[in-house]
Records
---
Amino acid sequence: MKEIVHYIDGGFREGTGAELVDVNPAAPDTVLAKGRAAAEAQVDAAVAAASGAAPGWAATPFRERAAVLVRAAAHIRAHADEWGRELSLEEGKTLAEGVGEVRRAADICDYAASEADRPTGELFDSPRAGERIMVVHKPVGVAGVITPFNFPIAIPAWKIAPALTYGNAVVWKPAEVVPLLAIRFAEALAEAGLPAGVLNLLHGGADVGSRIVEHPGVNVVAFTGSTAVGRALIRRCGDLAKPVQAEMGGKNAAIVLADADLAAAAAQIVPGVFGVSGQRCTSNTRLVVEDRVADDLLAEVVRLVDGLDVGDPLDPAVRMGPLITAAARDTVGRATGEALDGGAKALAGGEPYTSGPLAEGYFVPPSVLALPGPDLPLWRREVFGPVLAAVRADGPEHALALADDSEYGLSGAIFTRDLGTALRAVDEFDVGVLHVNSNSAGADLHVPFGGEKASGFGAKEQGRAPRDFYTRTTTVYLRG
Ligand code: NAD
C-alpha cells in the first residue's frame, strides 16, 4: 500500500485533512494508496511557499529553468514502464495507453524546455528617431492548476511545464482519484532540481481546489475538467478579476460522407471512441453518417467493436479497461438505458455487465447506438464513456449542420475525399481541433489545443499558445 503525500515547499508531507483512498477501478476492493487531503493551513502554506519562491525562479535564466525540465523529462522517461503500469492500475486505461501517456508527459517537458531557444518577446520599429519599442514577456507569479482524472500525468504536464518554463511558481491540485501519478510528476521535478516552493502539490477534493482559486496569493487559474465545474470557476475568477483558462467537456462528432474510404473511416472512428475507455475529452462519441453509406459503415464499426477485448487493463490483449468510478459507470449505464428507452437501437453493447469480474469492476461494454434522430439527450450530453451515438444525414450540408449543432466545440472529424467539403468544414464546423480523415481524439504537443463554445475558455494550451496565459507583457519604449 502506498502513501498519498503532498509536496509543499520542497518536501513530501502527510496531509492533515479528510481521509483519501485510491482504489483500482478494475478491482475496486484493491486499495492502491491511502492518505489525507490537504487541510486549509496546508493550502495556505503551499501558496506562501510558491509566492516566496516565485521571484527567484523568475530571475533564474531561462536556460537554467529549461534544464530542470529536460532533466525531469529524462527521469520520467526512465520510469515510463513502471509509472505507466501504476497509471493503468490507478486510472484504468490500458498498459500501452498508460506507458504512452507517461512518455508523452516527458515529451511535453522537453518541448516546454525548448522555449528557451525561441524568441521571448517582440521588437518593433518606432515612429520616432532613436527609439525602439519592445514587448517583454514576464512571468505572472503563482499559477493555480486544477486537473482532471483522465490524463493524470499528461494534462498536468501540459499545464505545469509551460507555467514553470515561463518562470512561474505553481500550486497544483490533481483529481483526487489519481494521486499516485501526481506524486510521480512532483518527484520527477524534485529529482531534477526544481527549487523548493516552485511546485507545490496538494491532494483533495473541490474544497481544496476552491481554496486555491480563492487565495489572494494565486495570480491565475488554469483548469481542465467538466464544463459545470469550469464555468463555476470562470464565474468566480471573473468576480476576483483573476485570469482563468478552462478546458472543459466535449461531445465531439465525426462526419462520414458517402465518398469517404469507409474501411479507413471505421478504423479511425473506433479507437477515437473507445480508446481510454471513452474517457477522453476529444473522443468522437457522435457519428454523423450519410444515409446511403450508413449501413455499410456501421456494419464495419460494429465488426471492429465486437473485436475489442474488455478486461484487466494490464493484460496486453485487452483493448478497453474500466471507467474511473462506480458513479461514472452508473452515469453511462443510465444514459445508454435512457437512449434505448427513447427509441435508440443497440448495434453493439448497450446492456451493463451483471455478473463476473467485469461487473465487480467499473466496466461498461463498448456500445454503438443508432439514434432515431438528434433529439435524444445522449446526442447532446457528454457521457464520458465508451458509447458511440450514430445519426444519419441526407447529404454533406445536413451532416455539417448536425455535427455543428452542439453546445460543445472541442474537436471534430470529417471523412471525405472532397477537398472542397473538407475546407467548408474548416469554416463552418465550430471546433478548436478539426481532423480531416482521422479521428477527433489525437492532439500533438507542438500545436495549439483547446475548445470553442462550452468546451473552452481563455487561452489555448500546448505549442506556443500557453505563453499568452503564463506571461504578461510590458511594452517598453526604449531610447538611448
Ligand atoms: P471534474 O470537473 O469533476 O474535476 C476536475 C478537477 O476540478 C478535479 O481536480 C476536481 O477535484 C476539481 N474540482 C471540482 N470541483 C471544484 C471546485 N468547486 N473548485 C475547484 N476545483 C474543483 O472533471 P473530471 O471528472 O476529473 O474530468 C472529466 C471532465 O474533464 C470531462 O468533462 C472531460 O471532457 C473534461 N476534460 C477536458 C479536457 C480538455 O482539454 N478540454 C481534457 C480532459 C478532460
Note: The CA atoms of residues 342 and 376 lie 7 Å apart.
---
Amino acid sequence: MTSLQTPPPDTGTAEHAWWRHGVIYQVYIRSFADSDGDGIGDLGGIRSRLSYLRDLGVDAVWITPFYPSPMADGGYDVADYRDIEPVFGTLGDAEALVREAHELGLHVLIDIVPNHSSDQHEWFQAALRAAPGSPERERYIFRPGRGPAGALPPNDWESVFGGPAWQRVADGDWYLHLFAPQQPDFNWENAEVVEDFHRTLRFWLDRGVDGFRIDVANSLKKDRALPDLGDFDQDLLEAHSGPHHPIWDRDAVHEVYRGWRLVLEEYDGERAFVAEAWVRDAERLALYVRPDELHTAFNFDYLRAAWDAEELRATIDSCLATTGAVGAPTTWVLSNHDVTRHATRYARLDSTAGGVGEGERAGPDTPLDLELGLRRARAAALLTLALPGSAYLYQGEELGLPEVLDLPEDVLQDPIWARSGHRERGRDGCRVPLPWSTDGPSLGFGTGKAWLPQPADWGSRSVAAQQDDPGSTLELYRAALAVRRGTPAFGEGPMSWIDSPAGTLAFERQPPEGAGSRVVCLVNLSDRPVPLPAYDVVLLASGPLDHPGTLPPDTTVWLR
Ligand code: NOJ
Ligand code: MG
C-alpha cells in the first residue's frame, strides 16, 4: 500500500454504504475543465473544480478514462492501464485528485475498459510482431479469414461503430474489434488477461480509488466458436441478448466479475463497481449485481423511456423489482457521454420518437421545442432524485445543456462519423466543453480554444450566469441535492405509488422509524394542470407553482 492512501469519506454502516443511495457526477475529462490552455480538459481542471462539485452536493465523481491513449475513441482505447495520458496530467496529479476529493468528502470512481485495449498497447504491438498462433496473439482474438486465400472476415459480426468487426493484418490473419479497428478485443479465455486486470484493479485501489465503472461489461466472453450472428440482433444498444447470443451478455461473463469482487474485497472501506451493460432484460441485468458480483449496474431502461407516465412507471417498477430481488440498489441515469442529452430528447415534439443511440440522434431538421425540453428535463431531475437508489448526473445537465446538433462537420471526432461513411454524426454533440463563465475564449473552460466549439449562446448557460439565480437549473440541482441529503425519507427506504390523475406519477417515500416526515413526489407528464394532494410544505418544485393548489404540466413537486 502506498503512502498516498487517504481515508475515504465516512460512509456509515455497510447497509448505508454511499453507493447504495449516493449521487454520482460523471466527469467526461476532455470536456470538463482545462488547466493548461491546450483546449483539452485534464486532471488539473478537475482538481480546480472539486469544490464546485462539493458545493453542488454530489457524493462522488466518476471520471472517464484518463489513461495513455491515442484517442481513437476519446480515451476508451487504452494503451497502458496503469499510467496517465500526458495530455491529462501525471500519476501524481491523479493521486492528488483522489486525496483532495476525499478531503472534500467526495468518493472517486474511475473507468476501466476490459473488453478491448488500444492497438498501441504493448501487448497488441507484440501480437502484431509475433506469428499467427503464437502466445502473443492468444491475448487477443485472431483468426484466419474465410473464402479463397482467407480474404473474407472470419464471421459476419459488425462493429458497433459501423463496418465489419474484423481487421486484417499483414500476414493475412484477422483480429476482432467490436468497436473501432484501433480497439482490438481481448481474449478473456486467456489467463494472462485475467491476471493483468486484477493487477490493474489493485494498482488503482492502492491509490485510494473508491471503485470502478466497467466499460461494456457484458461483452467480454464471446462464444469461443465465433459463429455467425445470423438471426441474432447486432445492435449493442437494442439487442435482446442473453445466454445464447454469441457476443452480448453470455453467462460466462459472470466468472470475470466474481473474480473482480474478490480483489475488491481485499480492500477496506466501501468500494464499489458499477457495470455499463446494455442488457435489455431487467432479469438478465440483475444477474450482474448478485451479492458475490458487482454492486450496481446502470439501469438504461429508465434512460430509454419516453416522457410518458405509464412507460416510466412500468420501467421504475421493473427495475426496482429485479434488482431488489438480489438485494442490490437500483441506479437512475438520464444522460451520459454516449447518448443525446435528455434536455434535447425531451424536446422532440413526439417524445417517443427516436431512441438514444448514435444512429437515432435528432438531426438539425428534427422539430424540437427546447423550452419544453428543458422544462421536462428539470421535472425529470426531481423525479430521478426522489427515487430510491443511486443516481448518476452527467456533467452539464445541472446547467440544463442541450445536445449540440450543429457542430461543423470538420470538427467531428467521434469514430462513428467516419465509420458510418459520414451518415451518423456520432456523440460529439453531448461532449462539448462546459461553459463556466459568461465570456472568454472558451467560456472559462480554459484559456485557449476548446477542442470542440461551444455554441455562441452558451455564456448565458454558464455556471457564472446561473449561480445565485434562484430560477436557474443549476440552483434547482443544488437545492434538490441539499433537500435529498437532508431528508431521511429520501434514503434507501422503499417507495409506494399513490393514486393520482391520469398522466401523472405520484409516490411516497417513508423515512426510517422516527426520522422525520414522509415525502410525496408528484410529476405531471400530462398537458393540463392537476390538483396537488394535501401537504404541509412544498419542499421543492421544478418550475413555478403560479396557481395555488395545482401543478402545471411538465413539472415535478416534492411535498412534505
Ligand atoms: C462505452 C463507452 O461509454 C463509449 O464511450 C465507448 O465508445 C465504448 N464503450 C467502447 O469502449
Ligand atoms: Mg488541458
Note: The chain is about 25% helix and 10% strand.
